[in-house]
């Protein structure tokens, strides 16, 4: 039993102890499953590896698509290279912060990962625009569909 579990057990009854241990075990298993889903961790015992792989792909696609909605200029600059590049980035980098932070980190990563590309200047300009406004200020939410 871990020190944390022992700390939680002090002062409780035996029934409370079993509940604390069960909760700690569940928390560890949940952490392992989340790591498998979003961080490339091993699939925990008792889970179907194929189903975990499918769900992990779905979560990665959701992350990619959300970053593209938050930073449409970035996806437009990269064009067809966006999805495969984002997949490589996501396999190496867990998301920390919000989607805008993820978009900026992805853009920085593309500059390092793909130094000899035709879109390098556009990515650099997107990250550090000439007008000096940070990327966050340039993002706006669409209230209508394009062309309306």
If you had to describe this structure to a student in words, what would you say it looks like?
This protein has about 150 residues and is mainly α. It has two domains: about 5-40, no CATH class; about 50-140. Helices cover about 65% and strands about 0% of the residues.
Which keywords apply here?
148 residues; mainly alpha; 67% helix; disordered C terminus
Alpha plus pi helix count? 8
Overall pLDDT score: 84
Question: How many structural domains does the protein architecture include?
Answer: 2
Indicate the low-confidence ranges by residue numbers: 137-148
Shape: elongated
What portion of residues belong to β-strands?
under 5%
Give a brief rundown of this model.
The protein has helices at residues 3-9, 14-38, 49-70, 72-78, 82-92, 99-113, 120-127, 135-138. The chain is mainly alpha-helical. The termini are far apart.
């Amino acid at each position: 039993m871990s020190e944390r579990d022992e700390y939680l057990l002090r002062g409780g009854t035996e029934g409370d102890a079993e509940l604390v241990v069960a909760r700690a075990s569940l928390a560890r298993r949940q952490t392992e499953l989340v790591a498998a889903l979003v961080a490339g961790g091993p699939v925990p015992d008792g889970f179907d590896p194929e189903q975990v792989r499918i769900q992990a792909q779905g979560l990665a696609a959701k992350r990619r698509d959300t970053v593209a909605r938050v930073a449409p200029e970035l996806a437009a600059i990269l064009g067809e290279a966006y999805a495969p590049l984002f997949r490589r980035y996501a396999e190496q980098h867990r998301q920390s912060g919000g989607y805008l932070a993820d978009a900026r980190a992805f853009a920085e990563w593309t500059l390092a990962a793909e130094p000899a590309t035709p879109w390098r200047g556009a990515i650099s300009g997107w990250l550090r625009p000439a007008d000096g406004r940070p990327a966050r200020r340039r993002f706006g939410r669409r209230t209508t569909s394009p062309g309306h």
